[in-house]
Design brief:
Structural class: alpha/beta
Number of strands: 9
Number of helices: 9
Strand content: 15-25%
Radius of gyration: 20 Å
Order of helices and strands: HHHHEEHEHEHEEHEHEE
Largest sheet: 7 strands, mixed
Number of domains: 2
Length: 275
């Protein structure tokens, strides 16, 4: 079997399983099996697919057909132009989160705090984009902090960040120009309707087991003393939560509260400032 035939068969398998954009995922898995960049797969279409990469390719294809996330099969995800290690212990970075990155980078900051760091994609990206900034990342999961540490090292920012095991602000001291977070925001009654891929991700990174707003209440309540005058607070939200989260921030005395939309025009980030 050559590469083209294998791709055709795998694409059909993924299509039959209901995978969105099956050809894209098949190419990514083929690139991993061949050890080449995905953009170079077309250069190998007529090449014979050797036994070992063929077995690996179809094993991955079968797992993807069972809705295992592509990032878990590849071990990484592209985010804001960088490759981040992904494991089952952390939330898979998503393109929508880049809305928060762009908002954060729209103004200067010297130090920042990332609450619930996961892969570290937010903190690491912001530090990589601002070479003079420093930051702290917290997470309640030691496994997540380990992944974030590896990503920080991979992108050369490990000397400018500290990673702390903490339940939100529990062991955080100091004040910051910027506080960011992508907290668990899926309500308990929404969990049954999620895409099958999310069953492979850590539940505590997805839901607060309540109304989806619990983390925002804690962050809004406790962020003020940790922000410098005029400091900014930014959180990612579920697309139906903009008005509720904005109201939570306003009730805690934050000013300049705004809701930003993602690339699909959906509410995705709420930002606010201290006086």
């Amino acid at each position: 079997m050559n590469v083209q035939a294998a791709l055709t068969l795998a694409t059909q398998m993924l299509k039959d399983a209901g995978i969105p954009d099956p050809a894209r995922d098949a190419r990514k898995l083929m690139a991993a099996s061949l050890g080449v960049d995905v953009g170079r797969v077309t250069l190998h279409l007529r090449d014979p697919l050797e036994d070992v990469p063929e077995a690996a390719f179809f094993a991955d294809t079968m797992e993807r057909a069972e809705r295992k996330p592509i990032s878990h099969l590849l071990g990484w995800r592209e985010f804001f132009g960088r490759r981040f290690l992904v494991t089952p212990e952390v939330l898979d970075p998503r393109p929508e989160t880049e809305t928060l990155i762009e908002a954060a980078l729209s103004e200067n900051f010297e130090d920042l705090l990332d609450l619930g760091i996961g892969t570290g994609c937010i903190l690491v990206t912001l530090l990589a984009e601002r070479p003079k900034a420093t930051g702290i990342g917290t997470d309640i999961s030691g496994a997540a902090l380990s992944v974030a540490g590896r990503n920080a090292a991979a992108h050369g920012v490990e000397d400018r960040c500290a990673l702390i095991e903490s339940d939100w602000f529990a062991v955080v001291g100091g004040q910051f120009d910027l506080i960011v977070s992508n907290p668990p925001y899926i309500a308990l009654d929404e969990m049954a309707d999620l895409a099958p891929e999310l069953a492979y991700e850590p539940r505590m990174a997805l839901t607060d087991e309540s109304d989806g707003l619990a983390a925002y209440r804690v962050i809004a309540r406790d962020a003020g003393p940790h922000l410098k005058p005029g400091g900014r607070l930014m959180v990612e939200i579920g697309w139906t939560q903009g008005a509720d989260v904005a109201a939570i921030f306003k009730a805690q005395g934050f000013v300049g509260v705004r809701i930003l939309q993602d690339m699909d025009g959906r509410d995705r980030v709420v930002l606010a400032q201290t006086r």
